[in-house]
């Protein structure tokens, strides 16, 4: 008989953090279902959450460090150890710090994922104040472009729409019931 184990977890396919139940067979993730006990998604999942096993088992998924062999752009890579990968990066960063100063190192992350706090701490340890989240910046830029486009199209839909949504979904402690 097939033994499928299930584990409660949280999807990180986006910022949502939907509650999921992971189905694992022979140490392999075979299915992801929405957790009905989650107050966030009540058992529902979007297509990204449902596709998590495809993402986990995709043959092109990067699972270990690769070192370039051959000329840059030649697309030739070989597997290297974590020690070698981290050692090479540390050496390069330390060289930059010694020759140009730590402030010349700029760190960028995506949109506030779970690792973001560690990136800023790493920047602090390196001695650079230059850390940013381009993902957030791009999202805000995209929002501005969308708002401007909607305004140019003859409406102030976005401002009113967002105010309506905020009114509907964000609790206002001063609001009189
Ligand atoms: S199931 Fe979809 S909406 Fe929920 S966290 Fe995953 S990717 Fe985001």
Please provide a written account of the structure.
The chain has 177 residues and is α+β, with helices and mostly antiparallel strands. The protein has helices at residues 47-50, 52-57, 82-100, 116-126, 134-152, 157-169; strands at 4-10, 19-25, 28-34, 66-68, 77-79, 107-108, 131-132. The strands form three sheets. The protein has a three-stranded antiparallel beta sheet. The protein has a two-stranded antiparallel sheet with strand order 4-5. The radius of gyration is 23 Å and the shape is extended. The chain binds iron/sulfur cluster. Iron/sulfur cluster (SF4) binds at residues 11, 13-14, 16-18, 41, 45-46, 48-49. The site of iron/sulfur cluster has 11 residues, from helix 1.
Query: Low-confidence spans: pLDDT under 50, at least 5 residues?
Result: none
Which sequence of SSEs, written as H and E, runs from N to C? EEEHHEEHEHEHH
Which second-level CATH architecture of the largest domain applies?
Answer: Single Sheet
Q: What is the assigned CATH homologous superfamily of the largest domain?
A: ADC-like domains
């Amino acid at each position: 008989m097939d033994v499928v184990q299930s584990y409660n977890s949280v999807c990180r396919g986006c910022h949502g953090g939907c509650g999921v139940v992971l189905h694992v067979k022979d140490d392999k993730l075979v299915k992801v279902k929405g957790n009905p006990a989650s107050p966030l998604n009540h058992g529902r999942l979007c297509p990204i959450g449902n596709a998590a096993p495809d993402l986990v088992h995709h043959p092109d998924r990067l699972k270990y460090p690769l070192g370039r062999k051959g000329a840059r752009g030649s697309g030739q890579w070989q597997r290297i150890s974590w020690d070698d990968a981290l050692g090479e990066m540390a050496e390069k960063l330390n060289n930059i710090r010694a020759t140009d100063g730590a402030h010349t190192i700029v760190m960028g992350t995506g949109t506030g994922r779970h690792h973001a706090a560690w990136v800023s701490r790493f920047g602090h340890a390196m001695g650079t104040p230059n850390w940013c989240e381009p993902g957030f910046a791009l999202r805000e830029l995209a929002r501005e472009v969308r708002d401007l486009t909607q305004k140019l199209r003859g409406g102030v839909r976005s401002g009113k729409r967002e105010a309506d949504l905020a009114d509907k979904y964000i609790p206002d402690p001063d609001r009189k019931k």
